[in-house]
């Protein structure tokens, strides 16, 4: 009782200085860091680390890092920004500090954030696939210099010389310039990573619904939700129209030939014994535009989405309500087969249904 | 007449008697405080056991109230479908496995030694192990409900619904591994009861003088030995199918869903008689006391009990009348199912005759007995109805059967159990239970029960099937369902009154209980201390307290056998099975931690396996075995000279060979193993009848190479011969003993390895077909017995090295020898079946 | 204690008499097989009541009866007579009755060829296929129509787990076991609508796996079967036509069949003549447009766990169009 009273008095009196500008005493700083390391280490122990060498993962992680992390943690050529440096604790410059953490610990930190710091948790906690992509990039980060970093993070987007007027009146942050195209590509270049879906020639109605769902948070992605939340209805329509009008490109990352008979059978006939309808019944010709087209889509992306539904990550979108029961009935081999099949199909010309 | 069996007590002075009594008290004393957990006295374990059983009864009863609340109204949304399905599965499973069998087993553990005039059961630590395994495992199993991990496939868990495809969640595995291991607990209890009833009765208590409760417990235990292995095999098979894809029950791969049903009901039907017979035995003890007349037609009832036990193994298909099996089968099982009503009829009329011959005092135990008579008879009659095949075609899987089974189980077991609580409480509590509260409990329970379950007969005939979480309003079932729910709550109120009575009046006391308030005639009502009777009497009649005038006085005056502890340890007299002539003095262990710890780690092993934490599970398993070995190390004490147990009788303290109680226990265990293997053989032959093509194909090229078979047989023969030679070496105290044992173990293991290699090399893969899965299952069962033999073998060698094994002190070796010969025989049978049968039918 | 017997029998009879009729009742037979079983039920009830009364009377006498009667009840004769002889004799008689009825339950086909109907149990619906010898098989689902007076052979199978086919007004139940085909021969005498239900626990929605059986006169049945074998009606209203296009574009044909359209899926029930059935999805939802729409958008609440995903992708007017189309498929 006495102790509680004393603590209360202490807080009420306001004696303790909460200014970030004055920093911590060294021992307090050391103690907090010590506790944080051990807490993270304990919780990360049970995490199984998948292989992280995959370049597709690295690229996806790079794309997110640029808009989601660089502001606080800096990039290889800019370092931690002046504003972020004034936070307490100040965000570590990751190119140096990443090596002190194990992969599982990095995963835990990116997923959960850290209390009493400015490090946020991931916006969609269950999207462990996205978080591993970020970790894969973080592992690579210490080896990157400014130029190699930009190659990964910006993709094929080039920052054009902007006139003074555009820079002055345009509200776009140079660092986030061409946000969609950094990952999804634009014009004649496709996505930077096989884990990023191809949007060229995708159904407009579908993309509008998807962006709206990301914006509302009913469709879960730690990468897309923050980006879509910034878009208003008009912008969503314009972006969707833009991408729907693009001609499909060759898959940027060499999808498998798609000659898998198993995949073809599942896609065209389904497997009635296991209650799996043919994919083409909804995703084939002459079907509702609100269903996404699958032909020419990245195999890794398709397989990833099916696995998310099969694992029980229910999103509350109507699309997921349809796909989740079907995905749950599919085996791992089924998923890989249909993904390979569809990625090998060529896209039809722009305008909609293949 | 009994004077000749008395010690020359008149020559013994009172101070010496007092000293002996204090010595007995000290030897049998209980550990203090929380250390009571390490106690092994049958009275303590019996109390714990009954307490746990009553706890599970209440828990499963709450589940029943939840179900009835959900069904009180049509279209009710109190419980979601998934929750309801878990609740009804758990209600049935907990009631059948965690309440019914343990409750009657507990009454046996508590009552039998006192009733038979023994100081304790012959394997006290085994009883403690059985209890703790059951309690810990049962609590964990029940706990799965709170984590949405409970099984939801029904208590009978039919595949393919419970296969990994249709029940991907872990609940089914909890059932399979949890219940599988609780059955181990029941079998341990059964072994103890058989040896206890047959070998530790008071001298002179020949079989025809043995109390009826002991007869029923003996039958109960023998039935467990033969019935439980069938369901243990079925659970092993389903778990292998779920985890590794061995398709025993998948029709598309050569298995059969009906195989499960045969195995399960081969256990399931005797199970209900396993539950009923001890309750009938309790009634047979209560009625003579309450009617103040000896039980009429005593030997006829014994015959009826044995007949019931025997016939009950021939009825199981009556649970499968609607599966489309041929009419001849149907008729046979229908006839058998009706025939089993006759022994029950004998018992009912014998009890009525006993009441008529005496004058019934209508105290609470008698009320519960009369309630039992009404409810059980009604249930038995609806049983005759469903034994009629055409009627069963309508009534099967409807609420009619729900009504029937509750009438026979609640009427046939719960009411006698409550009668038993009120009847025997004064023997184990310093205060008897309250008559007033007892009457309230009885009437609430009796009326509530009938209001709850009588309408269900009609509901079933109106078309309401079982295991439904709701029903539509337009079928007009809601009135009867609502009435039934009201009755259920009334029944629950009656049980609550009973609990209140326990809380207010039960004061467990093993040294100064209330005493023989009913003036009963059997031995458990004699003055008992922690050590049991002051001296073990020589018994000459069925109702010693009625028919032998001065028995109580003489027992207290230490005039009979074992008024002291000649070896300074806990002791019991082992007698011959039929005539109860004293044969030797059994030295019993005192309290200890190994049994409880072994039970804890065994439970942990099974539960960790369920959640797939394999490494930790293996660790716990090794610890469990280690504790069992520690416990075993303390048994098998050194032989001494003959001792004087009073009345001029000198008995040996150590016996090995077929007379030894340990030999008997191992032999019973081998019957269990044999039943398990025979169930396997049945499964093998059954699937052949269902899918003979698989066997024909196997004979053409899929049967493992014959060379392996001959080699394996050869190794088995060598193993047997080595063990035989080892026995000879031991008997003559020669040096080659250890070598022979090692050779026996190696060749036994080698035979198993050869078999497996042979299967593998003929491209037989267990997940490919039901046939292949069965072939490998033979090796799985062989592995179990070989592992046991190897562990016991190594233990024997260690004991040899420690100087605790020689030609006289050889019980541990006898155990090894029996297990090893059995393992060889089982292995040989397996080889013949797997290699010989396909070739024979080709 | 003597009052017990009186107290018990009275309500027992009242209960029994009260619950006789009903669309899913054993005691309301609509065919000779069920009639035989109903008679057996009454007989067994009577027999049981008599025996119970006898036992209770003996018990009552034993507890409080006059001395002479108690001596009789206590005698060895009584135990052996009532406990051995009487059961042996009566049970043998009952067994004979049961055996006779088991055989008699196989209806005499009187030389007429039974109508063949294949029913396959699925989680949690019934796949029905009429296989008359005179025409090609006709597929349907969840509702069975049969002609009165003619023997019908149901061939029962299961596509997944064990189910049980039970229409109490017509006959006893028979299990549907994967890997086997069982056969039930039945004859209905009375026309009407009866309800059946799956009687073997088959998973989550087992409680809702009901079945409607409509017994019609032979002429009505023949014309119904004729209609049923035809492909789906052409939609007349523009709204129905819109509904049909939506139905096909939304991929419904991947699971459902509507003969006469490209929809040829076999995963779910055949919908060719959906509108002519009595109920939607579960027997307690009447066949109307509202319930059809509800089953599409909220099916998991109507029949929890059923294998059809919920379709929340339609605007209200689109949903109405599809429901109108489906309800019009008579």
Characterization of the model:
The complex is a heterotrimer of chains A (354), B (842) and C (330). Chain A is an all-alpha fold. Chain A has helices spanning 2-13, 26-44, 55-68, 70-73, 82-85, 94-97, 103-112, 128-140, 146-154, 164-169, 179-184, 204-216, 224-229, 233-244, 261-268, 280-283, 299-310, 318-328, 332-344. Chain B contains 25 helices and four strands. In chain B, the strands form two sheets. A two-stranded antiparallel ribbon of chain B has the order 1-2. A two-stranded antiparallel sheet of chain B has the order 3-4. In chain B, a hairpin with a 5-residue loop joins strand 3 and strand 4. Chain C is of the alpha+beta class and 330 residues long. Chain C has helices at residues 2-18, 32-64, 67-73, 76-104, 218-229, 238-249, 289-302, 316-327, and strands at 115-122, 125-130, 138-141, 143-147, 151-158, 163-165, 174-176, 182-187, 192-197, 210-216. Chain C has a five-stranded mixed β-sheet with strand order 3-2-1-5-8. In chain C, helix 1 (2-18) runs antiparallel to helix 2 and helix 7 (289-302) packs across helix 8. Chains in contact: A-C, B-C.
Give a topology summary:
The complex is a heterotrimer of chains A (354), B (842) and C (330).
Chain A: H1 2-13, H2 26-44, H3 55-68, H4 70-73, H5 82-85, H6 94-97, H7 103-112, H8 128-140, H9 146-154, H10 164-169, H11 179-184, H12 204-216, H13 224-229, H14 233-244, H15 261-268, H16 280-283, H17 299-310, H18 318-328, H19 332-344
Chain B: H1 14-27, H2 42-71, H3 81-116, H4 124-143, H5 171-199, H6 212-244, H7 257-291, H8 298-311, H9 327-339, H10 341-357, H11 364-387, H12 389-395, H13 399-428, H14 435-461, H15 478-505, H16 544-547, H17 551-556, E1 570-575, E2 582-588, H18 594-610, H19 614-633, E3 643-644, E4 650-651, H20 661-690, H21 692-702, H22 706-731, H23 737-761, H24 770-801, H25 811-841
Antiparallel strand pairs in B: 1-2, 3-4
Chain C: H1 2-18, H2 32-64, H3 67-73, H4 76-104, E1 115-122, E2 125-130, E3 138-141, E4 143-147, E5 151-158, E6 163-165, E7 174-176, E8 182-187, E9 192-197, E10 210-216, H5 218-229, H6 238-249, H7 289-302, H8 316-327
Parallel strand pairs in C: 1-5, 4-10
Antiparallel strand pairs in C: 1-2, 2-3, 5-8, 6-7, 9-10
Helix pairs in contact in C: 1-2, 6-8, 7-8
């Amino acid at each position: 009782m006495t102790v509680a009273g004393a603590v209360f008095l202490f807080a009420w009196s306001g004696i303790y200085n909460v200014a970030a500008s004055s920093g911590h005493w060294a021992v307090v700083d050391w103690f907090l860091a010590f506790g944080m390391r051990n807490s993270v280490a304990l919780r990360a122990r049970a995490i199984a680390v998948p292989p992280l060498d995959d370049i597709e993962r690295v690229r996806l992680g790079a794309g997110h890092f640029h808009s989601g992390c660089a502001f606080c943690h800096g990039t290889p050529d800019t370092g931690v920004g002046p504003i972020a440096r004034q936070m307490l604790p100040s965000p570590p410059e990751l190119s140096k500090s990443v090596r002190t953490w194990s992969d599982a610990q990095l995963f835990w930190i990116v997923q959960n954030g850290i209390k009493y710091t400015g490090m946020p948790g991931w916006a969609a906690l269950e999207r462990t696939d996205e978080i591993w992509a970020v970790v894969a990039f973080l592992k690579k980060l210490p080896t990157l210099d400014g130029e190699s970093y930009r190659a990964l993070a910006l993709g094929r987007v080039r920052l054009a010389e902007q006139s003074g007027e555009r820079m002055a009146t345009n509200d776009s942050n140079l660092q986030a310039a061409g946000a969609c195209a950094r990952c999804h590509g634009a014009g004649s270049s496709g996505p930077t990573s096989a884990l990023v879906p191809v949007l060229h020639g995708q159904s407009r109605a579908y993309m509008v619904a998807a962006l709206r769902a990301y914006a509302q948070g009913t469709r879960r992605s730690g990468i897309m939700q923050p980006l879509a939340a910034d878009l208003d209805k008009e912008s969503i329509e314009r972006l969707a129209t833009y991408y729907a009008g693009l001609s499909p490109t060759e898959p940027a990352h060499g999808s498998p030939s798609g000659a898998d008979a198993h995949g073809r059978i599942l896609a065209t006939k389904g497997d009635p014994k296991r209650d799996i309808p043919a994919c083409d019944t909804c995703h084939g010709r002459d079907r509702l535009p609100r269903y996404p087209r699958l032909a020419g889509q990245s195999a890794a992306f398709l397989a990833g989405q099916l696995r998310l539904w099969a694992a029980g990550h229910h999103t509350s979108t109507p699309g997921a309500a349809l796909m989740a029961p079907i995905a749950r009935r599919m085996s791992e081999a089924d998923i890989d087969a249909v993904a390979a099949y569809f990625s090998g199909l060529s896209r039809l010309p722009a305008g909609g249904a293949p | 007449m009994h004077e000749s069996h008395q010690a020359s007590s008149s020559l013994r002075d009172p101070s010496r008697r007092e000293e002996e009594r204090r010595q007995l008290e000290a030897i049998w004393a209980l550990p203090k405080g929380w250390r009571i957990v390490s106690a092994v006295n049958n009275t303590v374990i019996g109390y714990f056991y009954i307490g746990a059983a009553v706890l599970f009864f209440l828990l499963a009863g709450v589940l029943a109230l939840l179900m009835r609340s959900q069904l009180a109204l049509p279209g009710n949304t109190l419980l979601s479908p998934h929750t309801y399905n878990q609740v009804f599965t758990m209600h049935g499973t907990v009631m059948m496995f965690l309440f019914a069998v343990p409750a009657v087993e507990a009454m046996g553990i508590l009552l039998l030694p006192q009733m038979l005039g023994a100081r304790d059961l012959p394997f006290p630590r085994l009883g403690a192990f059985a209890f703790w395994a059951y309690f810990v495992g049962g609590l964990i199993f029940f706990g799965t409900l709170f984590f949405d991990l409970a099984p939801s496939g029904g208590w009978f868990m039919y595949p393919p619904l419970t296969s990994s495809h249709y029940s991907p969640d872990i609940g089914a595995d909890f059932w399979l591994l949890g219940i599988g291991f609780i059955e181990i607990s029941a079998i341990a209890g059964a072994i103890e009861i058989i040896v206890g009833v047959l070998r530790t009765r008071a001298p002179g208590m020949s079989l025809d003088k043995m109390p009826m409760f002991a007869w029923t417990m003996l039958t109960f235990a023998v039935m467990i030995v033969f019935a439980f292995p069938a369901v243990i095999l079925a659970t092993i098979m389903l778990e292998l199918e779920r985890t590794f894809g061995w398709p025993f029950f998948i029709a598309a791969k050569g298995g059969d869903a009906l195989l499960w049903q045969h195995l399960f009901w081969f256990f399931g039907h005797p199970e209900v008689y396993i539950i009923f017979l001890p309750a009938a035995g309790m009634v047979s003890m209560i009625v003579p006391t309450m009617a103040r007349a000896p039980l009429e037609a005593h030997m006829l009832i014994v015959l009826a009990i044995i007949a019931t036990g025997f016939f009950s193994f021939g009825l199981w298909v009556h649970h499968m009348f609607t599966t489309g099996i041929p009419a001849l089968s149907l008729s046979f099982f229908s006839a058998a199912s009706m025939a089993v009503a006759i022994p029950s009829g004998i018992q009912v009329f014998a009890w009525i005759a006993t009441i008529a011959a005496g004058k019934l005092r209508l105290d609470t135990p008698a009320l519960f007995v009369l309630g039992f008579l009404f409810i059980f008879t009604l249930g038995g009659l609806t049983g005759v109805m469903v034994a009629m095949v055409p009627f069963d075609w309508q009534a099967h899987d409807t609420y009619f059967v729900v009504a029937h089974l509750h009438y026979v189980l609640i009427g046939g077991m719960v009411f006698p159990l409550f009668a038993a609580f009120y009847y025997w409480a004064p023997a184990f509590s310093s205060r008897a239970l309250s008559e007033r509260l007892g009457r309230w409990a009885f009437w609430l329970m009796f009326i509530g029960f009938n209001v709850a379950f009588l309408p269900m007969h009609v509901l079933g005939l109106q078309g309401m099937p079982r295991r439904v979480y709701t029903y539509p309003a337009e079928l007009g079932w809601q009135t009867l369902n609502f009435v039934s729910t009201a009755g259920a709550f009334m029944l629950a109120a009656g049980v609550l009154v009973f609990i209140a009575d326990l809380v207010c009046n039960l004061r467990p006391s093993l040294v100064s209980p209330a005493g023989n308030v009913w003036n009963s005639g059997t031995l458990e009502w004699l003055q008992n201390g922690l050590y049991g009777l002051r001296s073990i009497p020589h018994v000459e009649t069925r109702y010693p307290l009625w028919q032998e005038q001065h028995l109580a006085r003489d027992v207290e005056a230490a005039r009979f056998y074992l008024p002291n502890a000649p070896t300074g340890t806990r002791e019991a007299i082992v007698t011959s099975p039929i005539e109860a002539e004293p044969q030797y003095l059994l030295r019993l262990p005192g309290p200890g931690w190994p049994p409880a710890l072994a039970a804890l780690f065994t439970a942990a092993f099974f539960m960790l396996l369920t959640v797939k934490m394999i490494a930790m599970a293996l660790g716990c398993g090794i610890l469990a075995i280690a504790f069992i070995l520690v416990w075993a190390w303390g048994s098998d004490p050194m032989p001494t000279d003959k001792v004087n147990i009073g009345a001029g009788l000198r008995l040996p303290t150590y016996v090995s060979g077929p007379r030894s109680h340990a030999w008997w226990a191992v032999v019973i265990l081998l019957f269990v193993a044999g039943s398990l293997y025979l169930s396997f053989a049945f499964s093998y032959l059954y699937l052949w009848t269902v899918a003979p093509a698989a066997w024909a194909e196997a004979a053409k090229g899929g049967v493992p190479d014959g060379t392996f078979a001959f080699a394996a047989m050869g190794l088995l023969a060598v193993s047997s011969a080595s063990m035989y030679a080892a026995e000879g070496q031991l008997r003559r105290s020669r040096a080659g003993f250890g070598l022979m044992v090692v050779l026996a173990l190696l060749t036994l293991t080698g035979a198993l390895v050869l078999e497996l290699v042979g299967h593998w090399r003929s491209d037989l893969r267990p997940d490919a077909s039901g046939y292949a899965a069965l072939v490998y299952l033979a090796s799985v069962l062989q592995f179990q017995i070989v592992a046991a033999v190897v562990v016991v073998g190594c233990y024997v060698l260690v004991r040899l090295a420690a100087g605790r094994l020689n030609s006289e002190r050889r019980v541990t070796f006898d155990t090894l020898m029996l297990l090893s010969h059995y393992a060889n025989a089982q292995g040989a049978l397996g080889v013949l079946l797997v290699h010989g049968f396909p070739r024979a039918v080709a | 204690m003597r009052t017990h017997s009186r107290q018990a029998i009275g309500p027992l009879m009242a209960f029994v008499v009260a619950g006789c009729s009903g669309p899913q009742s054993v005691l309301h037979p609509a065919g000779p097989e069920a009639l035989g079983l109903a008679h057996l039920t009454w007989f067994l009830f009577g027999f049981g009541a008599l025996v119970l009364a006898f036992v209770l009377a003996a018990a009552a006498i034993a507890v409080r009866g006059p001395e002479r009667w108690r001596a009789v009840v206590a005698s060895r004769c009584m135990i052996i007579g009532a406990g051995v002889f009487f059961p042996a004799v009566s049970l043998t008689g009952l067994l004979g009755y049961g055996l006779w009825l088991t055989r008699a339950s196989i209806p005499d086909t009187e030389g007429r060829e039974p109508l063949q109907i294949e029913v396959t149990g699925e989680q949690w619906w019934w796949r029905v296929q009429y296989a008359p010898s005179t025409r090609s098989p006709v597929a349907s689902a969840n509702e069975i129509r049969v002609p009165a007076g003619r023997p019908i052979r149901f061939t029962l199978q299961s596509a997944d787990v064990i189910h049980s086919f039970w229409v109490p007004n017509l006959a006893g139940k028979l299990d549907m076991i994967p890997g086997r085909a069982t056969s039930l021969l039945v004859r209905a005498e009375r026309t009407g609508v009866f309800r059946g239900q799956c009687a073997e626990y088959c998973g989550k929605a087992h409680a809702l796996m009901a079945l409607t059986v409509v017994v019609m006169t032979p002429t009505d049945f023949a014309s119904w079967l004729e209609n049923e074998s035809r492909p789906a009606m052409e939609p007349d209203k523009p709204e129905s036509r819109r509904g049909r296009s939506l139905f096909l574009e939304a991929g419904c044909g991947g699971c459902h069949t509507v003969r006469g359209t490209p929809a040829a899926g076999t995963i779910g029930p055949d919908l060719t003549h959906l509108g002519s059935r009595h109920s939607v999805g579960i027997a307690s939802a009447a066949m109307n447009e509202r319930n059809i729409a509800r089953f599409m958008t909220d099916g998991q609440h109507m029949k929890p766990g059923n294998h059809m995903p919920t379709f929340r992708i339609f605007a209200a007017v689109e949903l109405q169009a599809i429901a109108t189309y489906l309800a019009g498929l008579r």
